[in-house]
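Service request form, structural biology core

Requester: graduate student, group of Dr. S.
Request type: structure prediction, single chain
Budget code: on file
Notes: please return the result as structure tokens.

Sequence provided:
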Amino acid sequence: MNKLQEITIKVPEEIAQAYREASDIEKQQIELKFSTLMKLKINSIQTEKVDTLGQLMDDISRKAIARGLTPEILEEILNQ
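Core staff response, request fulfilled:
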């Protein structure tokens, strides 16, 4: 498991008060839910980056083919 680190976030006053009054188990559940939410966000961002890279590579490939690059020419270039 990853080492846990403490962070500080700003929330409305009533949220802060409710958290301070929560039991230890409730706090652990909140922390787990927040961690899960952030992991989903990170995964979503990474997926978007991969999708964007894939689209960029597809665009470059289409342009190269339109300019006459063939698999044979590419192989010859790579073997030089």
